[in-house]
Design a protein that fits this description.
- The chain is α/β, with parallel strands linked by helices.
- The chain folds into three domains: 322 residues, Glycoside hydrolase, family 3, N-terminal domain (TIM Barrel); 199 residues, Rossmann fold (3-Layer(aba) Sandwich); 126 residues, Immunoglobulins (Immunoglobulin-like, Sandwich).
- It is built from 23 helices and 28 strands.
- The strands form seven sheets. A six-stranded mixed sheet has the order 1-2-3-4-6-9. It has a six-stranded mixed sheet with strand order 10-15-14-13-11-12, sandwiched between helices. A four-stranded mixed sheet has the order 8-7-5-17, with no helix packed on it.
- A hairpin with a 2-residue loop joins β7 and β8.
- α3 crosses α12.
- The longest helix is centred in the middle third of the chain and has 20 residues.
- The protein is globular and about 85 Å long.
- The structure holds beta-D-glucopyranose.
Length: 751
Amino acid sequence: MKRTSLIALLCLVCCFNLIAQNSNNIILREDNIDEVIAAMTNEEKVTLLVGGPGDLVPGAAGYTRAIPRLGIPMTVLADGPAGLRIQPKREGTDQTFYCTGFPTSTLLASSWNPELVETVTTAMGNEVLEYGVDVLLAPGMNLHRNPLCGRNFEYYSEDPLLSGKMAAAYIRGIQKNGVGTSAKHFAANNQETNRLENDARVSNRALRELYLKNFEIAVKEGKPWTVMSSYNKLNGEYTQQKHGLLTTVLRDEWDFDGIVMTDWGVKDNTVKATKAGNDLMEWGNQVEIDRILAAVNDGTISQEELDRNVRNMLQYIVKTPHFKGYKYSNKPDLKAHAQVARKAAEESIILLRNEGNTLPLKGNEKLALYGLTSVDFVGIGTGSGEVNTEHIANMQEAMKSAGFTLDQNLAEFYQHYYAQQEAIQKMERNNRWGYRNIREEAELSARAISLQAQENDVAVYVLGRNAGEGADRVLKDDFELNTTERELLQNLSSAYHALGKKLVVVLNVGGVIETASWKHLVDAIVLPWSPGQEGAYAVADVLTGKVNPSGKLPMSFPMRYMDIPSSKNFPYGQNASGRRGERKDVDFTNYEEDIWVGYRYFQTNNVEVSYPFGYGLSYTTFSYSKPNVKADKDGFTATITVTNTGKVAGREVVELYVAAPSGGLEKPARELKAFAKTKSMAPGESETLTMKVSEYELASFNDEHSAWETASGTYQVMFGASVTDIRATTSFRLNKSQSWEVHDVLGNPKE
Ligand code: BGC
């Protein structure tokens, strides 16, 4: 046979094979995934592992690729976590595609109420579904290791239990709608500085007990469809390429059965990532397809590995609305969701200070409202965590609608000042997202303030901070107040107090700021974090007492930044001296503080804090009685009766802390093991709360044995109103120590 006819014959055979492979017209169904895999060429398989371009939903972060001949649709991935992030306007139509800006994750965590979080995300997930998106790239759930991490507002807490429970509830609510979530960023993505390359060097114990623990809870209890691996390295290896993390721990130990996708863009080694169990490259490109295919062809990626990832992808795809042909309306009920957002903010706002029952105000006072943020309210934050809402209510609007009479001159002064700042911001593009996170507060003379104090009944100063993806916050003029803010506080305090009038501060901040040096100047402090598009109304309702605050801190407020152990190795210095958001020479971060993060450190070492973990005031008071612990076959059940001993209705969060007996590993003085929240109780009313703790949850991680271990003996069980305010104590006896071995695959930090 001639050479040309041989080639022609080969081509014919190839074509025939392709046709034969799909001769039965194999179209993807939920129950024929293996058949579809058998019918796919390796080229097709690889395209499924690499995200592609798309225009189905403008503003979506990414897509998976379609294979029409097998009935595999494109699916759509878009950002969260405070709501769906898509483009609100589209060419060729007047229709708008705004989404609801719900409270940020830090505020949701402050509710200490997973049910509330689930209600919020049930509404949020409906927007995901109705706008034609298959996966919301949320929850963000890295721990608040250090307050300067620029994305802390997208995350929940310094405590892994609170963070994990909140994330699990978040996931359940979204996924109830038949759309997916992506728990991110897995793992140890605790800073933005050099986030693409930084090596987080973390001991196995700190990883297991803190930085993976919250993901473990979220994966086991929430069952997210997807997990997003982070950009950073972990103990010398990119998390995207870490088989031990993505396969051994996530899938083998925790039974995760969804897909892992990379974080967006830069990938160091697509082939290694694919082998490690990273199913989907986002956002993907042709080079990645070529690389994976070449590795399949030369055997670097085995057929089993390729098929494993493809199977994961297909199992994901058959669950999606796009696969099911859901006809989305593009018209979610934004009005109803705005109400959900407002209620959630109401239940989560924290009252930090209330000297002499300054709050609640009457609601009809003549009000001097200060601060640039009273106009330029920070509803959410910047970067991919921002949501395109139609409107974000500010404090001027909210206070007016609550019934206050605003000092009009002052209100206009701030409106003009805001307009000027906006103009400046338009000229400066200070970070990748085109925002400037820190804005200068307006200067007001002491004389002007004295006059305002005479004309008004009360002063409210809205103090703001913004932050977001791509940059960490800085110490000076951000964590710490700047000179203008300090002077303003000082002058307000003197002028209003001289006339026997009160000064209230509203902290519209994305993360922790320094409070110890100035809180004595003010009568009350309300902390709504970044409370979403309706949050300002919720703040107004807390100020008037229409809402009795019941939020509590999901992290500690230190006296000074350097009191936080991780401050010694967090790269705040580089940020403070360089331009923000740029790559810095921060190749690695040694998590030398190990497990001593947040209250675990402060409480154990008796280090004074400005406000402790779990702290929050109410307009009423509560008493705790009848603490009880009953051993059951897998740990214990604790109950406590809470009574409203004050004059108005209110809700209380009870935190259950446990102190382990000596004899085992060195442990924090107490650790949060459960929590519960009462319903709204009328004065005099009581409620008994029940909390369960399993033996496994009592265990600590012994690196030497690569095992979770409990010591036998007596465990102190404490019912706290905060980590420092224990109201009742009892104990639980564990007769036999236990251990649970796990794989030693995470790598130890290298010097
Ligand atoms: C962020 C992710 C986000 C993704 C898609 C990345 O830069 O780190 O959180 O989901 O972009 O927008």
